[in-house]
Specification:
The complex is a heterotrimer. By secondary structure, chain A is an alpha+beta fold. Chain A folds into two domains: 109 residues, Ubiquitin-like (UB roll); 130 residues, Fumarate Reductase Iron-sulfur Protein, Chain B, domain 2 (Orthogonal Bundle), CATH 1.10.1060. In chain A, the strands form two sheets. Chain A has a five-stranded mixed β-sheet. A two-stranded antiparallel ribbon of chain A has the order 6-7. In chain A, a hairpin with a 2-residue loop joins strand 3 and strand 4. In chain A, helix 2 runs antiparallel to helix 6. Chain B is mainly alpha-helical. Chain B has a single domain, classed as Up-down Bundle (3 helical TM bundles of succinate and fumarate reductases). Helix content of chain B is 69%, strand content 3%. Chain B has eight helices and two strands, in the order αααααββααα. Chain B has a two-stranded antiparallel sheet with strand order 1-2. The longest helix of chain B has 31 residues. Chain B is elongated, with a radius of gyration of 20 Å. In chain B, 32% of the residues are buried. In chain C, the strands form six sheets. Chain C has a five-stranded mixed β-sheet with strand order 1-22-21-11-17. Chain C has a five-stranded parallel β-sheet with strand order 6-3-2-10-18. Chain C has 17 helices and 22 strands. In chain C, helix 10 packs antiparallel against helix 11 and helix 14 packs parallel to helix 16. Among the domains of chain C are: 136 residues, Flavocytochrome C3, Chain A, domain 1; 132 residues, Methane Monooxygenase Hydroxylase, Chain G, domain 1 (Up-down Bundle), CATH 1.20.58.100. The chains are: A alpha+beta, B mainly alpha, C alpha/beta. At the A-B interface, helix 6, helix 7 and helix 8 of A face helix 1, helix 3 and helix 7 of B.
């Protein structure tokens, strides 16, 4: 199969960017989108041109490192799919495909399609943990947790931190990312001692990073490769209100 | 974009809570307001409507408290809405060349995308509306021996002017769009949502929006065509 | 090839006393650093996977200053994240007769008696605490309706001791360790350096004192000094090009440490995982693993007729060969990985393979779906089935999966003693980067256990023993040793960029991968290994003359990053082949065709090879020297593994 690609090229963070057109041929339907880009890059190197920089690592949809906006959609047109899992069979032969980086002020472009998502790490550092030093834990079965609660926590914990929620949100909000972690830890009894402080600090950090507001468009959930629900955002807001009423004064 | 570390109600989450609270308060008012206005349909020459209006005005200070609260809620809703929008614009200064929705669970619609536009249009509409009716000409009528304002006559007179009737109706379409996203969204913003509530709230929002805006929409049109001048 | 050998005493520093008391005795006797003094020490941890993140977090909790490096943009992306099936622990919550001893025994036996007893016993002991720690961190393990933790069974064991979080156990455990790490980052105890690649180890007066990194964004070569260095940089399966590892997984950190004097143990011990998606097209960049847990409910089979091209669902029951159940009735589909992989290869070699290439076997869930219903299967494996469906376009609820073995894990790695210290004082290797606990074959759900045991519980104890004897001396990176290391790194980068040949780095990598897979893969023989060695040498020579690395050294340049890694693979591959040639026996994942039982099982030669092969670098152009650490079994007597 053959494709025409319009790809965003940008030499560095403060350099101007633009779209460039490429053509790739002999693409197998089972090939992933990134493998198609691998082939394009091999072609570019042979032509003496600089290959297109993009991030990826596990290539099985779990590390969260890859992420491109393909035809206007974060991780491409398929739901519940990361860019590395996206297969070329979903694009008709001869199609023109537009590829852009995840765009947000909080995700500055490093080069071409590579962006800096360290803001997400800083949100976690602000409180996305349970403060338990190594070695001080009680027996794992000391606190029974109802199965459905554990499952709900797992649904939220499934976040891979790819940032597609931010990329897809019309406001570049990180609400779903932040809420997923707050929700995961708020659902579990282990997370309760720090719940008020956690939501206050994580929300403040999220804002400090320059993400937009959540306007409840729900685009984040649609783009999330793990299908994390915006109901987690509702839970984050409950946690927030709870902290406003019962939490420590910050 | 580095900024001050925000706290409490100044955070993005806090602001959404404010939007939700003020929004729901305004919706509540709209429902009461609509209930009063629907008395125009009672074919009694405006008797019920005028009585209703008169009763409201007799509450005196209470009415003023409500009016002030409404005004504050309205202004707070607008200011916060503008702040939220400005922040959102700053959060992505370089726009996508191509932007599309994956659909699925997304709640994005023109209604959700244009909240600021529909909101600002309503913000323009409301003072005109208040000026036209509450602050409009004072006609008097006597019901059950009591003199009172003939608000019915003013309403019917105004809605006999086609530009008022149809302009008014047109604005109600914007209100409808604003409420379709606004009502369910307010519950979501207040955290009053979960797996069981979600479908209900979303339907409730849509139905309520259509009923409220629909009621306000039908009112001028019906008056224009079917209600004779008193 | 004749292997040079030399007698060097490799002291594993195994503590005295009975097996079950060794770790406690050791903890009671190691030297300590006082809490007030800990903050005067700086420790470098390279890698943020299970071992790296848990070590960095735990060391910081103790009060040490930790510098933590990772190659990805975030520590949460380390490839531990991709482990699917679960983590073993001898909790015996299921009351099915499990115990620390049994986990120890299963691991030693599963590793085909090529691991250290003391290390493995300690691992089994610590397994219990790992689960406690993870649960306290909020890791959402699967639970029963009563609210207590659930378990599943895994290959190589007859008890259910595997804890899991759907098919994302590695992710959840990693996020637990990552959250602990980020807590320390917030506290200022850990300084995080993402998008850094370690390119050299700095050794001063025979002691590891720092590392040289390339900042992958700016291209800057950076130096960092410390009182000790921990490498937790994972394994080297990507030497095969196609593997289940991430595309950035590489051997550069351990390889360059090896070239600075850290000896490399058992490089030929690699694990080929039986349940992966088969290779299916040119340009494929990786092989996707399907969790071993699938073998709990899936049945592996091939048609009884050679070259049977009928769709699987049209092949009647009596024309199917459930070859694992037939050959290994006691363990059936749950035999250890090396055995399952080899059995699959054997039936494909014999012409019974399925799929377009004939290099695949079926993994069939129709019986399990009939028995348990679609919903139960979906709950257990839903995400794996969805992943399979997305990749292949086939629905595994309806059509059996097609699977084939793929390189997955490397048991070999830097040699470490009981304290996890390499042969360079002050240099530690943790997790998959070391060679220690899995012998010649790792059991499923044990990698997570080992990585976390090393990071959470072992290194925080053992590193103090070393640091207590080496007071902080305020070493700075202006020391000549750092300058020299920086120069060497820069020279290599310049050289790679200046060749400007005809072939891309990936082409060489791919070609090396072919050689490795064909001759140093699932089964090996002397002739093939010799050919591999000469082919790799030739390829390496060509590489340095004809590779083309585009771009510059001054910014993000993925081709340049890869070029350095492939240069190392081209050396490591040779060492793996040399080790495989040297080990004239079959054990675990190392199968030498010359050494097998009449029914095709691995034939160990305990009289000659009951040792760890430890390779010492002797400089460019010289053959490495092989040393031996004899393995002494005091508790478990080696016997031929039987899963029949």
């Amino acid at each position: 199969m053959k494709y025409h690609l319009r790809i965003w090229r940008q030499a560095g963070p403060d350099k101007p960017g633009r779209f460039e057109d490429y053509t790739v041929d002999n693409i197998e339907p089972d090939m992933s989108f990134l493998e198609m880009l691998d082939i394009l890059n091999e072609q570019l190197i042979k032509e003496g041109k600089e290959p297109i920089a993009f991030d990826s690592d596990c290539r099985e949809g779990i590390c969260g490192m890859c992420g491109l906006v393909i035809n206007g959609m974060a991780h491409g047109p398929r739901r519940l799919t990361t860019t590395c899992e996206l297969r070329m069979r979903h694009f008709p032969d001869g199609a023109t495909i537009t590829v852009e980086p995840f765009r947000a002020e909080a995700f500055p472009i490093i080069k071409d399609l590579v962006v800096d998502r360290s803001a997400l790490d800083r949100i976690i550092a602000a409180g996305g943990y349970i403060s338990v030093n190594t070695g001080s834990a009680p027996d794992a079965n000391a606190i029974p947790i109802p199965k459905h609660i554990a499952e709900e926590a797992m649904d939220a914990a499934a976040c891979i931190g790819c940032g597609a929620c931010v990329a897809a949100c019309p406001n570049a909000s990180a609400a779903l990312f932040t809420a997923a972690k707050i929700s995961h830890l708020a659902l579990l009894p282990q997370g309760h001692p720090e719940r008020e402080r956690r939501v206050q600090r994580m929300v403040a950090q999220m804002d400090l990073e320059g993400f937009g507001n959540c306007s409840n468009h729900g685009e984040c959930e649609a783009a999330c490769p793990k299908g994390i629900s915006i109901l987690n955002i509702a839970r984050m807001r409950r946690e927030f209100l709870r902290a406003q009423v019962r939490g420590p004064v910050v | 974009m580095r900024m001050e570390k925000p706290k409490g109600w100044n955070t993005t989450v806090g602001k959404k809570v404010i939007m939700g609270l003020t929004g729901l308060f305004l919706v509540l008012y709209l429902i009461v307001h609509l209930a009063g206005n629907l008395t125009v349909f009672i074919p009694d020459g405006g008797r019920t409507m005028n009585l209703y209006s008169h009763t409201l005005h007799k509450t005196g200070p209470l009415l003023w408290i409500i009016r002030i609260l409404l005004l504050l809620g309205f202004i707070y809703h607008i200011i916060t809405g503008i702040q939220v929008t400005l922040r959102n614009r700053r959060a992505r200064s370089e726009r996508y060349a191509m932007y599309a929705s994956k659909g699925g669970p997304s709640k994005m619609s023109p209604a959700s995308r244009w909240m600021i536009i529909t909101g600002l249009l309503i913000a323009v509409f409301v003072p005109i509306h208040v000026n036209m009716f509450s602050l409009g000409p004072y006609y008097e009528t006597v019901i059950n021996g009591e003199p009172m304002r003939d608000i019915y006559r003013l309403v019917v007179e105004r809605f006999k002017e086609p530009e008022v009737a149809f302009g008014y109706a047109a604005f109600m379409l914007f209100l409808c769009a604003h409420l379709i996203h606004g009502i369910w969204s307010a519950f979501q913003s207040l955290g009053a949502n979960n797996r069981r509530l979600m479908p209900f709230l979303y339907s409730l929002g849509t139905v309520l929006s259509i009923l409220i805006a629909g009621g306000f929409f039908v009112l001028p049109i019906y008056t224009y065509f079917f209600i004779p001048l008193p | 090839m004749s292997v040079m050998t030399q007698t060097v005493v490799l002291d594993a520093k195994i503590p005295p006393g009975p097996l079950e008391d060794k770790w406690d005795n050791h903890k009671a006797s190691v030297k300590l650093v006082s809490p007030a003094n800990k903050r005067k020490y700086t420790i470098i941890v390279v890698g943020t996977g299970l071992a790296g993140a848990s070590a960095a977090a735990s060391l910081a909790e103790l009060g040490y200053n930790v510098l933590n490096f990772c190659i990805q943009d975030s520590p949460r992306r380390a490839h531990s994240v991709a482990a699917q099936g679960g983590i073993n622990a001898a909790k015996n919550y299921q009351n099915d007769g499990d115990s620390v001893f049994r986990l120890f025994y299963d691991t030693i036996k599963g590793g085909d008696y090529r691991a250290r007893e003391a290390n493995v016993y300690r691992l089994a002991q610590l397994s219990v605490q790992i689960i406690d720690q993870a649960v306290a961190q909020g890791v959402p393990f699967a639970r029963e309706y009563g609210g207590l933790l659930a378990n599943r069974s895994f290959g190589g064991a007859q008890v259910s001791r595997t804890f899991y979080a759907r098919g994302q156990t590695g992710q959840q455990l990693l996020l637990g360790a990552y959250s602990a790490l980020m807590r320390q980052v917030d506290a200022g105890r850990v300084k995080l350096f993402p998008r850094r690649e370690m390119l050299d180890l700095v050794v001063i007066d025979g002691r590891a004192r720092g590392i040289i990194c390339r900042n992958l964004v700016t291209g800057e070569i950076e130096a960092y000094a410390a009182d000790a260095v921990c490498l937790a940089t994972g394994g080297y399966s990507t030497v095969y090009f196609l593997s289940t590892n991430a595309v950035n997984s590489n051997a550069t950190a351990i390889w360059r440490a090896y070239k600075k004097g850290a000896m490399f143990a058992n490089p030929c011990f690699t694990q080929i995982h039986p349940t992966c998606l088969p290779e299916s097209y040119q340009g494929q960049s990786k092989l996707t693993l399907m969790s071993e847990s699938l073998r709990n409910d899936g049945r592996v089979w091939v048609p009884k007729k050679k070259g049977d091209t009928r769709p699987p669902n049209e092949i009647p029951e009596d024309e199917r060969d459930y070859f694992l159940e037939r050959r290994y009735p006691a363990f059936g589909n749950l035999v250890p990985r090396d055995i399952a992989s080899r059995a699959a290869k054997a039936v494909c070699d014999a012409g019974y393979g399925v799929g377009a290439t004939g290099r695949a076997v079926y993994l069939d869930f129709s019986d399990a779906i009939k028995r348990l219903g679609v919903d139960v299967i979906r709950e257990r494996y839903g995400n794996l089935f969805a992943m399979y469906h997305e990749i292949t376009g086939e629905d595994p609820y309806k059509v059996p999966m097609r699977i084939y073995p793929a390189p997955h894990y490397t048991m070999g790695g830097l040699w470490v003693d009981y304290n996890l210290m390499t042969t360079i004082p002050g240099l530690y290797a943790l997790g998959e980067a070391n060679f220690s606990d899995h012998g010649a074959n790792r059991l499923g759900a044990s990698a997570l256990m080992q990585g976390l045991a090393d990071g959470y519980f072992i290194i925080p104890v053992t590193i103090g023993d070393f640091l207590a004897e080496h007071r902080p001396d305020g070493l700075k990176t202006d020391h000549p040793a750092f300058k020299e290391a920086i120069r060497n790194v820069e020279d290599q980068i310049k050289r790679l960029l200046s060749i400007n040949g005809k072939r891309t780095v990936r082409e060489y990598w791919w070609e090396l991968g072919r050689i490795m897979w064909d001759y140093v893969g699932m089964s090996r023989n002397a002739e093939g290994l010799k050919k591999a060695i000469s082919d790799i040498r030739a390829l390496r020579e060509e590489y340095w003359k004809n590779v083309r690395v585009p771009g510059s050294a001054e910014d993000l340049n993925k081709s340049l990053e890869l070029a350095g890694r492939v240069a190392d693979f081209l050396e490591l591959g040779e060492l793996m082949a040399m080790d495989a040639l040297d080990r004239e026996e079959s054990c675990g994942g190392h199968f030498r065709e010359e050494y097998q039982t009449p029914d095709g099982e691995a034939l160990r030669r305990d009289d000659l090879f009951c040792h760890v092969s430890v390779w010492e670098y002797k400089g460019e152009g010289n053959d490495p020297v092989r040393h031996k650490e004899p393995l002494v079994f005091e508790v478990v007597k080696p016997s031929q593994r039987s899963y029949k």
